[in-house]
Amino acid sequence: MATRYVRVCTPEGKIHYGILQINRTVKVLDAPPWLQGQPTELELEPDRYRLLAPCSPSKVVAIGKNYVAHATEMGSVVPPEPLLFLKPPSAIVANGDPILYPPQSHRVDYEGELALVIGDRCTDCTPEEAAHKIWGYTIANDVTARDLQKASLGPWARAKGFDSFCPLGPWLVRELPTGATLQTFLNDNPTAVQQTSIDQMVYPPDVLVSYISQIMTLIPGDLVLTGTPEGVGPVTVGDRVRIEIEGIGSLENTVISRKSPKA
Length: 263
Ligand code: MG
Known about the structure:
Bound molecules: magnesium ion
Shape: globular
CATH topology of the largest domain: Fumarylacetoacetate hydrolase, domain 2
Strand order of the largest sheet: 7-6-17-11-12-14-8
Helix content: 10-25%
Oligomer: single chain
Order of helices and strands: EEEEEEHEEEEEHEEHHEEEHEEEE
Number of helices: 5
Number of strands: 20
Structural class: mainly beta
Radius of gyration: 18 Å
Largest sheet: 7 strands, mixed
CATH class of the largest domain: Alpha Beta
């Protein structure tokens, strides 16, 4: 099994990066692994930590319509250049945390995606250089209020930016199998609602990171969501969404209702 890099919180509220061992203990590192964090003497038993999202980025850069079949199902075509948008880091939640269904929306969709974590400062990189700036991989759910997205021609900040709309995790791995499978499941249905090979992406990870770096500097710990394949669909309160990527694991979150704002 690939080494699993985690970020954890102790009962005292201390946050650490670490390596998840087979026996579920966490070997604590003295810094994020992409900043050359080294193992310390500290090892946390399973009852001494809670898994957080595996990184804490300065920004989340996401890509729209990066699989042909998904662009088609959205009634459009793959854009001539990568389509970028930003999700606020405040939208990030961990594996197992709830997705909060906001009262402003009546159509919230899951979007299973491969996420890239940047390990090194990246400005104006070629794809070859960018490939070496990608430190690791995890799973993301680019949760989207589809009705709000369609209602506005403008930026997607509201539709994509609600608290909890970026489940992430459960951990990072450094390498993926070639053509790894991405699947999304709803509740106990054994049939995947989304299934693709990640090599079906139109713009692959190195090209995306190169493209983004010609606009904005990516810094260590930043996150790139690489787009969702076909099969997006709605969730309702009570649904469990599980996204699996071969070589990483699975990310599962349950949808609950977000309280209406006070009148
Ligand atoms: Mg998406």
